[in-house]
Amino acid sequence: MTYAQSFAWWSFAEARHRLPNLLERAAEVGLKGVDFLPRELWPRARALGLELVVIDGHESIETGFNDPARHADLSGQVRRSIELAHAEGVHHLSVMSGDWASLDDEEAIAVCAEALAPLAQEASQAGVGLLLEPLNTKVDHPKHQCRSTNWAASVVDRVGSASLKILYDVYHMQLMEGDLLRTIEAYLDRIGHFHTAGVPGRQELDSRQEVNWVAIANALREWGYDGFVGHEFIPREDPVAALRQAFDIFDVRAVRT
């Protein structure tokens, strides 16, 4: 088995050129899933054969599990999202550390793991995955505490459940760490989903950015990754052409050089 491809609805909804039939066009390109799709569009996606890959587990990126005072509220939100995901066939829920609160990294990792452990157990019983995403603090999320692959992996390791994994966003981690291939290989067993976007600019996977996407695509095939690769960029031009370009790079039917 190998991976399938999805795209993030929010980022294409922010494109300059917006299409009312984007779901239909994405399915025509060959995409198999969609991330962060508004609930009212779920029946339409299903009718096109698109899987619901990731939705938000709770409301805010800025408010997360690094703040013990918010654990009860956030846990309640995630539990409701687990029930919804189980009922509707959603693969994963996104969960966040949140922006810096009052705890240093070691303390924040510990309290995130403490809160996420019972939720991971409940998610496992429901057949749903949880994804913790490290974000970049250089450009987009200056106060976010989970800001490295190792930070997220430390939480995942402490929880010790296969239902909690990392959402590895290549855009964010290229900005923060670089060293992409070595890092991905080292943490692959703890990664449950990938996101792509051109660096810099969070745009197309083209020659105007610095990541070697062909190398990443080939490596994921070689290493046997069998989850989803989701394209989460904001296209400058035609969104369908941008999706097709990204799809072709990661097309499992052709190893490119």
Provide a descriptive summary of the structure in words:
With 257 residues, the protein is α/β, with parallel strands linked by helices. The protein has a single domain (4-250), classed as TIM Barrel (Alpha-Beta Barrel), CATH 3.20.20. 42% of the residues lie in helices and 15% in strands. It contains ten helices and eight strands. It has an eight-stranded parallel barrel, surrounded by six helices. Strand 2 (33-35), helix 3 and strand 3 (51-56) form a beta-alpha-beta unit. Helix 2 runs parallel beside helix 10 (239-250). The radius of gyration is 17 Å and the shape is globular. The protein starts with a strand and ends in a 7-residue tail after the last helix. The mean pLDDT is 96.
Please state roughly what percent of the residues sit in beta strands, choosing from under 5%, 5-15%, 15-25%, 25-35%, 35-45% or over 45%: 5-15%
Note poorly predicted spans. none
Going by CATH, the homologous superfamily would be Divalent-metal-dependent TIM barrel enzymes
Could you tell me the CATH topology label: TIM Barrel
- In the CATH hierarchy, the architecture is Alpha-Beta Barrel
- The average pLDDT value, as a whole number, equals 96
- How many DSSP helices? 10
Oligomeric state of this protein: single chain
Report strand order across the widest sheet: 1-2-3-4-5-6-7-8
Based on Cα principal axes, name the global outline. globular
Helix and strand run? EHHEHEHEHEHEHHEHEH
Relative helix content: 40-55%
List the main descriptive attributes of the protein structure presented here:
257 residues, alpha/beta, TIM Barrel, 10 helices
